[in-house]
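Subject: sequence -> structure tokens, single chain

Hey, anyone have a minute? Need the predicted structure for the following. Not urgent.
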Amino acid sequence: MRLVPGDDLRAALETIARDQAMGAAFVMQGIGSLSVANLRYAGLDQPTRLDGDLEILTLAGSLSADGAHLHMSVSNAEGRVVGGHVSAGCIVRTTAEILMVCLDRVRFSRELDPRTGFPELSIHPQD
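Reply:
Had a minute. Here:
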């Protein structure tokens, strides 16, 4: 799929997954550019906002109608690279080209894991 300028990357992917009633899918790769990236770094509770011309170097994760778990790395105009958990508010600058694979006979859901405190991936076989 291709996202266009102004799209919120995470919101767009979650909307598509809900609207198409995706049981289970994963993002193989994503490239493109952002004007804003909201990434939550390891061990932090809140995302960090990055503004400017940013290139998406990698985008990967799981996706279903129940939600998404996405990680991304981006580089700035000086070539510095950062990465983390994709939060809402990652705004497409020119384009985002995303390769997704939808899986048959399986459904992903998110269930709270008391050990981590996060809604974690749960995989359910479907006939």
